[in-house]
Design a protein that fits this description.
With about 180 residues, the protein is an alpha+beta fold. Helices cover about 20% and strands about 30% of the residues. It is globular.
């Protein structure tokens, strides 16, 4: 696996086996703009498989390097669904490199419903469960700084001095509820 400990990783939900095949064969993943996480410029996507995957459900088995992203409509992405109710809505099309299968899946255990979650390559490489992907409070500031750098000037402070962030606020900004990413 070609992931570095300092890689910025976005755990993304795959609700349908067809979407995993799109990622594998066509090399892209879609995120509706209206529900997208704040930063999509990450090094890799870790793909969380929901209950729709039968005996392969509630786990992360695949990761893919991110090659870029662009905004397109759903109709441009899924040309076989021109009359879909959300056909005109904007989506991020995340371009992916080849899907890699993890040496062992990262299981959800009790966490079944998750949304987008930021983590690092270090956490991903050692995780056994989805809970293990949650960046610990003392390292969240470093993760937040990496996300700010990726976002560019959107999150740049107006002053040179870094403000001290409340740990609960920082967890919320990273998409991590205080008790974990479980809904």
């Amino acid at each position: 696996m070609n992931i570095q400990p300092n890689s910025l990783v976005l755990v993304a939900v795959v609700n349908d086996p067809r979407d995993l095949e799109i990622a594998r064969l066509l090399g892209w993943y879609r995120i509706p703009l209206r529900t997208a996480p704040k930063v999509v410029a990450v090094d890799a996507l870790a793909l969380y498989q929901t209950g729709a995957f039968g005996d392969q459900r509630w786990r992360i088995q695949h990761i893919a390097p991110v090659r870029g992203h662009e905004l397109v409509t759903r109709a441009e992405l899924l040309r076989d669904q021109p009359d879909h109710p959300r056909a005109r809505e904007e989506y991020y099309k995340i371009q992916l490199g080849p899907l890699e299968t993890l040496p062992r899946p990262i299981l959800a255990e009790t966490w079944r419903r998750i949304t987008f979650l930021y983590t690092t390559g270090e956490y991903l490489l050692r995780a056994e469960t989805v809970h293990d992907l949650v960046v610990q409070s003392d390292e969240r500031k470093t993760l937040w700084q990496a996300l700010r750098e990726r976002a560019g000037t959107i999150y740049a402070p107006a002053v040179q001095e870094e403000p001290e962030l409340d740990p609960a606020l920082l967890a919320a900004l990273l998409g991590i509820p205080e008790d974990g990413p479980c809904a």
